[in-house]
């Protein structure tokens, strides 16, 4: 019986098949891990692109509004706020969903602190700009909001001239 046990242990005719199957399983697991990792990287980079596009869309809304002095005419703010994109002269430069609201802030008066402006030579009109840019609607939209404060200096009439 001892001779038969030794001959079975020395017979290695199926060892190559077992080693090949184990190596195939290991290589399959490495391949699957690579696929999942690259899929996650693609999703992360897509989300980053969408959030960057939303930021630049919101920033373009602020830039378009600030470029036209007519947007800060106090007569436009009878209801307190104004949507500048209702005016045909303010063109939405992006294809993103863009909402811009400008509010005439009547609670603020005088010069901004620390700027050294003389309140006797100017009147100060305070405006708040809120721009919301939204892109990449599927599956979850990316939204960025930019709030900016703008102060318009209006020269006052000088007495005695």
Which terms summarize this structure?
161 residues, alpha+beta, four-stranded antiparallel beta sheet, rod-shaped
Characterise this structure:
With 161 residues, the protein is an alpha+beta fold. It has a domain at 54-155. It is 39% helix and 24% strand. It contains 2 helices and 4 strands. The protein is rod-shaped, with a radius of gyration of 34 Å. The termini are far apart. The model has no long low-confidence stretch (mean pLDDT 80).
Q: What is the percentage of strand-forming residues?
A: 15-25%
Structural class: alpha+beta
Tell the overall outline.
Answer: rod-shaped
Radius of gyration: 34 Å
Work out the number of β strands.
Answer: 4
> Given the structure, what is the number of helices?
2
Distance between the termini: 128 Å
Can you write the helix and strand succession as a string?
HHEEEE
User: What portion of residues is helical?
Assistant: 25-40%
Unreliable parts: none
Largest sheet, in brief, is: 4 strands, antiparallel
User: pLDDT average, as an integer?
Assistant: 80
Strand order of the largest sheet: 1-2-3-4
SSE topology:
Layout: H1 2-10, H2 15-67, E1 81-82, E2 97-104, E3 122-135, E4 142-155
Antiparallel strand pairs: 1-2, 2-3, 3-4
Concise synopsis of the structure shown:
With 161 residues, this protein is of the alpha+beta class. It is 39% helix and 24% strand.
């Amino acid at each position: 019986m001892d001779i038969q046990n030794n001959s079975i242990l020395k017979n290695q005719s199926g060892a190559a098949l077992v080693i090949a199957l184990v190596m195939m399983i290991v290589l399959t697991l490495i391949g699957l891990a690579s696929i999942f990792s690259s899929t996650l990287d693609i999703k992360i980079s897509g989300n980053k692109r969408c959030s960057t596009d939303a930021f630049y869309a919101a920033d373009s809304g602020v830039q378009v509004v600030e470029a036209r002095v007519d947007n800060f005419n106090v007569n436009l703010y009878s209801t307190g706020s104004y949507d500048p994109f209702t005016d045909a002269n303010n063109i939405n430069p992006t294809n993103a969903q863009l909402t811009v609201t400008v509010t005439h802030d009547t609670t603020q008066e005088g010069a901004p602190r620390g700027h050294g402006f003389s309140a006797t030579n100017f009147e100060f009109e305070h405006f708040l700009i809120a721009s919301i840019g939204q892109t990449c609607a599927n599956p979850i939209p990316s939204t960025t909001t930019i709030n900016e404060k703008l102060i318009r200096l209006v020269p006052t009439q000088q007495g005695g001239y």
